[in-house]
Amino acid sequence: MEPLLILRIALVGILVTIINSLLKQSGRDELAFLTSLTGLIVVLLWLLPYITDLFLTIQQLFNIV
């Protein structure tokens, strides 16, 4: 895994936390939830190629057809 990817994930986590706390303090809990959900989806999309590679490696390891 690339160190740049880890830093990008950490940056998204920090930004989502800051935005989430600001929105909750202003009484916009729905937008805070949507912000957290969007951050999660973005990170999962970044990790999707690595997850696919992991499953392909496990499949090759156990010779599952």
Give the overall form. elongated
Q: How much helix is in the residues? A: over 70%
Order of helices and strands: HH
Strand-pairing-aware structural class: mainly alpha
Number of helices: 2
Instruction: Outline the biggest β-sheet.
Output: none
Mean pLDDT: 93
Cα separation of the termini: 27 Å
Low-confidence stretches: none
Radius of gyration: 17 Å
Task: Please state the oligomeric state of the protein chains shown.
Answer: single chain
The proportion of residues in beta strands is under 5%
Total count of strands? 0
Please characterize this protein's 3D structure.
The structure is a single chain. The protein is mainly alpha-helical. 88% of the residues lie in helices and 0% in strands. It has two helices and no strands. It has helices at residues 3-25, 29-62. α1 packs antiparallel against α2.
Helix and strand arrangement:
Elements: H1 3-25, H2 29-62
Helix pairs in contact: 1-2
Keywords:
mainly alpha; 65 residues
